[in-house]
Amino acid sequence: MTVTLSEIFVKKSGISLYSRDELASLTIKKEFIKRVAQYYDIPYVVDDTKENNLCYANSSAIRFVYKSSFSEKDIVSYLLSSLKQETFDINSAVATFT
Description:
Number of domains: 1
Order of helices and strands: EHEEHEHHEE
Largest sheet: 2 strands, antiparallel
Helix content: 25-40%
Strand order of the largest sheet: 1-6
Number of helices: 4
Distance between the termini: 7 Å
Structural class: alpha+beta
Shape: globular
């Protein structure tokens, strides 16, 4: 599934260029969360796990295809690990979910 960043994030008015940190702080669109849930056939959960949780099943280091659920944190972690540039034009930059 290949999407533009503008399909993923709610952009701030009048701004189209974002740094990695700014991108990570944007709100993820609910429609995109639903698309990811359907694409991978896994449920979305609100991220309320503790950092010191010993269970790796829902770790952000696990690829989407092996997860039993996902959160917004997983989407951001995946994007930041797969997108290599430092700044992004939210209207034209694309991300591929495999």
